[in-house]
Write a structure and sequence with these properties.
86% of the residues lie in helices and 0% in strands. The radius of gyration is 22 Å and the shape is globular. Helix 4 packs across helix 6. By secondary structure, it is an all-alpha fold.
């Protein structure tokens, strides 16, 4: 399939769970309450942290499987069995690490209150049991990505994501609102996804024969995954430390005012994520790795993401008032807007990020994260101290700016990218000025939104066709 088709498939696969979330979150929030929802967010943060024990094998398998595009079924199967067994064993280690550290984490790092301690402590034992099964899922998904089986991958993701939202809602609706019931329900949905992915890999003949570790495959996996494993340790810190710092400084309930806008607006990243996921295998196996490919794909992303973010900035707060309630909207005012700016900045480098992972050593990104983490933690603390939870959103946006600048520099793309984003930045600033000067007047927001987006679309219309033709030529060459 073409790059454009794979991108659209990835986009559809990410959009359907978002639509389900729009209908499930409000009643789910009403049933379990703000504080318990915040505790759920904290538990998924912990799951994300201990997910680093896959040591980058998921990404390593995607990259390696793409390079084996024309290899035999036996060779690909040997690679995948090696990675699966390794991550299963690593999952057992992750479970033991969580078991030994959970009490210390809850007592000293997260402000959950004594009343909630027993509930959250007991529910985490479900994570301990599930980790050896869940950890290999990244390897299975990496195999499907490397094989460019995006239809199967996204159908499975839709099923798993939908079940993980609907099943807990059904359980809570029947009166079982304790985390002891909600956590295993979500984990069951995730395990269903693992089983389905395993089945597809068997059907695709990427997982034939008996389970065994092949050292010839383990060595390159460890070599590539060594730096990926460091990134896997560091990346969850950058993604989730904000919620833990907020919980530690302001309590679990405050996390909800940040986590829900974050969860909502971060879905916008499905657009750059869909393209980078589709283009990653092409970068890995293609002989032609011209910088123009990444540049043209990035220009398309900027063109697509700018009006999306403009609309989001104008309407995120009114939407929260309708979706949740006015009190929640007031408490989270400004958070979604700042996060959207950070998302726009971050989306600029998605393709360059994929190109680095596919064609260069991941060490570059590991060094970046090592530098960012202490700076980001300081920004979070400083922002929360001075401005409250909105300061955390500002810190997140500043962190994405650091990330984007570094990756563009390492890709020798700073000057040409700055040239491409000057006009979009002007439109984004105009959108922010509308909010600053006209506040909560929905009619004015809507009117200016239609005007600004229309002008931007007209301005960019000539470039879209040319960029599409360039990507089409790339598809024919690869």
């Amino acid at each position: 399939m073409s790059l454009g088709q794979n991108t659209l498939i990835n986009l559809l696969g990410a959009t359907v769970p978002m639509l389900v979330m729009l209908f499930t979150v409000p009643p789910f929030l009403n049933l379990i309450g703000l504080e318990r929802y915040g505790m759920l967010a904290i538990i998924w943060v912990l799951l994300g942290y201990f997910g680093f024990f896959d040591f980058g094998f998921g990404r390593a398998v995607a990259q390696r499987m793409a390079t084996l595009k024309y290899a035999t079924d036996h060779e690909r199967s040997s690679l995948l069995w090696t990675a699966l067994i390794s991550t299963f064993l690593l999952g057992i280690v992750a479970s033991l690490a969580l078991l030994l550290s959970v009490d210390h984490l809850l007592m000293h790092f997260i402000d959950i209150g004594t009343d909630n301690y027993n509930e959250i402590y007991k529910s985490i034992f479900w994570l301990i049991l599930a980790l050896p099964i869940l950890l290999p899922s990244s390897v299975l998904q990496g195999a499907l990505q490397g094989r460019e089986l995006f239809i199967s991958l996204n159908v499975i993701n839709i099923i798993g994501s939908t079940l993980s939202q609907i099943l807990p809602l059904i359980v809570a609706w029947n009166g079982y609102t304790s985390l002891e019931f909600l956590i295993p329900t979500v984990l069951i949905a995730r395990i269903v996804s693992v089983v389905l992915t395993f089945t597809v890999c068997r059907t695709d003949k990427s997982l034939l024969g008996s389970a065994q570790i092949d050292m010839n495959h383990l060595t390159p996996l460890v070599s590539y995954g060594g730096w990926i494993s460091i990134i896997s340790i560091l990346a969850p810190i950058l993604i989730t430390i904000d919620k833990l710092v907020i919980a530690g400084m302001s309590g679990a309930k405050t996390v909800t005012f940040y986590a829900i806008p974050y969860s909502l607006v971060s879905k916008v990243l499905v657009v750059p994520g869909s393209l980078s996921s589709a283009i990653f295998p092409r970068f890995a196996y293609a002989d032609n790795k011209e910088s123009s490919i990444a540049e043209n794909a990035t220009k398309i992303l900027i063109t697509v993401m700018t009006p999306i973010v403009m609309i989001g900035i104008l309407f995120i707060n009114p939407f929260l008032g309708i979706w949740i309630d006015e009190q929640f909207s007031m408490a989270s005012k400004g958070i979604g807007e700042l996060l959207l700016l950070g998302i726009w900045i971050n989306s600029i480098v998605y393709v360059y990020h994929a190109n680095i992972l596919a064609t260069r050593s991941p060490r570059i990104l590991a060094v970046l994260y090592l530098f960012e983490i202490p700076v980001y933690i300081f920004l979070l603390w400083f922002g929360l101290e001075l401005f409250g939870v909105i300061g955390a959103a500002g810190a997140w946006a500043l962190r994405t700016f650091m990330d984007t600048t570094f990756i563009l520099y390492m890709s020798n793309a700073v000057i040409k990218t700055v040239h491409h984003i000057l006009v979009p930045i002007g439109f984004l600033l105009s959108t922010i000025l509308v909010i600053v000067f006209f506040g909560d007047d929905f009619v004015i927001r809507f009117s200016f939104g239609v005007l600004l987006v229309s002008i931007f679309v007209v301005y960019e219309r000539k470039q879209v066709g040319a960029l599409y033709n360039n990507l089409k030529l790339y598809r024919e060459r690869t």
